[in-house]
Amino acid sequence: MENNKIRGAEVVMKCLVAEGVSTIFGYPGGAIMPIYDALYDFRDSITHHLVRHEQGAIHAAQGYARTSKTVGVCFATSGPGATNLITGIADAMIDSTPVVCITGQVASHLLGTDAFQETDVIGISMPVTKWNVQVTRAEDIQPALAKAFYIARSGRPGPVLIDITKDAQFGLTEFEYKPFGEIRSYNPSPKLDVEEVKKAAELLNRAKKPYLLVGQGIILSSAEKALVEFAEKSGIPVASTLLGLGAIPANHSQYVGYLGMHGNYAPNVLTNECDVLIGIGLRFDDRVTGDTSRYAKQAQIIHIDIDKSELGKIVDTKIAIHADANEALQELTKWIEPKKHYQWIQQFRDLEAVENEQIIQNVIHPVKNELKMAEVVHKLSKKTDGRAIIVTDVGQHQMVTSRYYKYKESNNNITSGGLGTMGFGLPAAIGAKLGNPDKMAILIVGDGGFQMTIQELGTILQSKVDVKIIILNNNFLGMVRQWQQLFFEKRYSFTDIVNPDFCAIARGYGLEAVKIEERVQLDGALDDLLNSKSAYLLEIIVEQEENVFPMVETGASVSEIRLS
Amino acid sequence: MEKLYNISIFTENSVGMLNRVTIVFTRRHINIESITASESEVKGVYRYTIVAQMTEDQAKKVVGQIEKLVEVLKVFYHTDGEVVFQEIALYKIPTKMLANRFDAEKIIRAHHARILTVESGFTIIEKTGHENELKGLFDALVPFGILEYVKSGRIAISKPMKTLETYLEEMSNN
């Protein structure tokens, strides 16, 4: 019977094939060598992208997961390899991204002995994974991996880590693939309570100023169509969180804008004027709510989420519905009365005009001085018709992009929301492009964050990934500088940053690279970027001390949003 | 208002489960006052009783976040009035002190304690009860010279009658 048996490492590869995995991001090392050895025989069915740092692997897997709508997979070795994944795992956890991380571990007899490159990655990753497990026997690999994929992709998605000891990778076992059935302690598809949905519909039917907030839950449950149907039947205005951008097309007549700290004026202000607030697939993050003691206190709140622990966590709800967004929206549409809320939506449009006059026009059509971030993003949005995959890093450029890129399609907005991970952008853009190769993927990144994972230019070089990179360079850690200006008396403590020659570096990695500083060059430079046939870097020098407005200051209420 | 809550957690028996549960308390800076774990009436399902000081709002959120853990079946929170609870303490005192003092019998009777073992050097006394009762015997034994004292965490059973199996059935129907 011995010849029916295969190595644990080969089991890993066969499981990945069975789960439909075609792309892996990773970095080899001692404790994961048997798996890499097995991978060598699977090069035809699985493409492995060698990153330059394990943080790059996890962010790439995140970007891949979000544009491909599948589970992202990454490999890392034990010890430092595994710990280097942690930032990305935490990011995937808070942003509900399905990823499976496979880490090598020292042989099981060495566990707990402080062996070379041994670290307790299960302990370290426990608070930031949806689930994790250490496997020490070859025969346990198949069930663990099947369970890992099931957990990562079901319910509220999230990261899962499987730590496999070296002896388990070498060990022999029989292989039969069995997809995972169910876990009695885990209910990823809660049964929709139709009575609660009817109550919610009744509340909305009676409302004079109903208001719908949507988050990434819409995208994760593929509820975009159901959302538009519900919105159009009910006539309710719709606003989006950062991660929800694209869930409803930005040019939809009922879309009223982007919520939160640097969001639009109208959707923030009118949160404190609506009478019924319905939030679907969002978690009322503090960047969305501002001061919760003064958040929508006049309104009755309906909250729909697939994660029960989110219901009532931040805001008190009148009706809480534990459900999948798509299912809940379809049911809600049945019970909602057809209505138009022209006057109520007009209130949003009136405030939008204020924001447009006081802020937007000045930054998208400036006539003098240095280039502004917003005019770049605005032009890019027009030139791509709001249909490119846009990846951002974290900071001012991110807020400007989410304000001025008008997403017309879903699954195109790839950004680090909850964790706010600088360095996310470049590797996530690589994964995002590979996850949906037919679309153009454009990274908009700041000069600070770009340097946190700049080494991934090497991955672009080796894997020939067609990523378009726009660096909005203000030679500052701009968002922190803005806060120092507004709240720390302009004491610019370590936010001025001396940058390298980005174009020279990019060329060193084989990218075409161009730098511009003048407004007259912008159109042509963007066209060249968009028409380029391979990876391309465009560095744009922008105004040094520009601030992003509007802004809800920390501790302020959403209706106290500042326009300057 | 903060008060003592009894959190009862039913989980699968997997490595590291206790760690996953305590992380939820740690993140919210809630100090666990006592913790016990054992198999429940359902084979393979483990029951943790965790006692901690917090507000009801915190208790609700902690319960939600523990219940979210993949391998946790069900979590409840109760105030002291809603549960019957008990702790156990062991007291080690020198046997010669016990033999020499005239009030030893009276104290042991008054506190409903019992003697587990008597050896030439020491005697072990056991008492079950609420924390203040265990402390009462401790104070009474101080003159004897307490060599060692150990007390368990609290175990608690709620007064409502719904069984764990009913919950498990409901969960599989959902």
CATH structural architecture of the largest domain in chain A: 3-Layer(aba) Sandwich
Strand composition percent of chain B? 35-45%
Strand order of the largest sheet of chain A: 3-2-4-5-7-6
Characterize the overall form of chain A. globular
Oligomeric description of these chains: heterodimer
CATH names the topology of the largest domain in chain B as Alpha-Beta Plaits
Q: Level of helix content of chain B?
A: 25-40%
Total domains of chain A, how many? 3
The percentage of residues in β strands of chain A lies in 15-25%
Biggest sheet overview of chain B: 5 strands, antiparallel
Largest sheet of chain A: 6 strands, parallel
The first-level CATH class name of the largest domain in chain A: Alpha Beta
The amount of helix of chain A comes to 25-40%
Please outline what is shown here.
The complex is a heterodimer of chains A (564) and B (174). With 564 residues, chain A is an alpha/beta fold.
Give a structural overview:
The complex is a heterodimer of chains A (564) and B (174). Chain A has 564 residues and is an alpha/beta fold. In chain A, β12, α13 (286-289) and β13 (300-305) form a beta-alpha-beta unit. The longest helix of chain A has 23 residues, at 342-364. Chain A is globular and about 75 Å long. Chain B has helices at residues 17-27, 56-67, 95-100, 104-110, 131-141, 164-173, and strands at residues 3-12, 32-39, 45-54, 72-79, 83-94, 114-118, 122-129, 148-151, 155-158. Chain B has six helices and nine strands; from the N terminus they run βαββαββααββαββα. Chain B has two domains: 3-84 and 155-173, 2-Layer Sandwich (Alpha-Beta Plaits), CATH 3.30.70; 86-151, ACT-like. Chain A, domain 2 (Alpha-Beta Plaits), CATH 3.30.70. Helices cover 33% and strands 40% of the residues of chain B. Chain B has 174 residues and is of the alpha+beta class. In chain B, the strands form two sheets. In chain B, strands 5, 6, 7, 8 and 9 form a five-stranded antiparallel β-sheet that branches. Chain B has a four-stranded antiparallel β-sheet with strand order 2-3-1-4, with helices on both faces. Chains A and B meet through loops of A and α1, α2 and α6 of B.
